[in-house]
Amino acid sequence: MATYQSTTGTRAGTSFNTIVAFAAGAVFVLVGLLGFTVSGEHTAVGHEGGALLGLFQVNVLHNVVHIAVGAVMIGAAVAGGRIAKATNVTIGAVYLLLGLVGLMLTGDTPLNIIALNGADNGLHIFLGVALIGLGVGLDRR
Predict the structure, then answer these.
(1) Tens digit of pLDDT for each residue in 117-141?
(2) Are 137 and 88 in contact (CB under 8 A)?
(3) Which residues are registered as beta bridge partners of 23?
(4) Would you say residue 11 lies in a domain?
(5) Is 7's pLDDT higher than 80?
(6) Domain span holding position 111
(7) In a domain, 3, yes or no
(8) Which residues cross the membrane (predicted)?
(9) Domain presence at residue 114
(10) Is 112 helix (H, G, I), strand (E, B) or coil?
């Protein structure tokens, strides 16, 4: 069976946004699962959590959110095309907003239910900008 290149430089039928959605989704699921290795001694919901990679604070709810976001992104990748692009941009916008709001919620506040810290906020802002940029910039016709 012959494989041919599309005008976007990907295998026929696969958009760059589809690849980004799948890869990011897989990483989110992996991070969510790894988070359970450090969050077990902390409350499931609250401002305290375990330090994933010694840097990112996570609790059980934070891990579940990562897995859910990953599942949505993988599902969007399976759907492909416009759905993958819209999902990348939408999740990017949510993560950008979460990072910015997190700057005000970091620390010992009752609103910090997913154990955000400064490293989380920086990563969320970076991921938000990256997903929006890739979502909007890739697969232009």
Answers:
(1) 999 999 999 999 999 999 999 877 6
(2) no
(3) none
(4) no
(5) no
(6) 16-137
(7) no
(8) 20-40, 60-81, 93-115, 121-138
(9) yes
(10) coil
Euclidean distance between the first and the last CA atom of the chain, given in angstroms as a whole number: 27
Mean pLDDT (whole number) for 58-72: 97
Give the integer Cα–Cα distance in Å for 36 and 26.
Answer: 16
Closest CA to 71 of 105, 21, 110: 21
pLDDT band at 8 (very low <50, low <70, confident <90, very high): very low
Amino acid in position 88 = N
Residues 46 and 99: their CA atoms lie apart, in Å, by 17
Cα–Cα distance, 48 to 72 (Å, whole number):
26
| Structure tokens belonging to residue 4 | 């041919």
**Contact of 72 with 25, CB cutoff 8 Å:** yes
Q: Are 121 and 62 in contact (CB under 8 A)?
A: no
Q: Taking Cα atoms as reference points, which of 89, 85, 97, 105 lies closest to residue 124? A: 97
Domain assignment of residue 8, yes or no: no
Count of domains for the chain: 1
CA Rg, the chain, in Å? 17
Give the contacts of 64 (CB within 8 A, at least 6 positions apart): 32
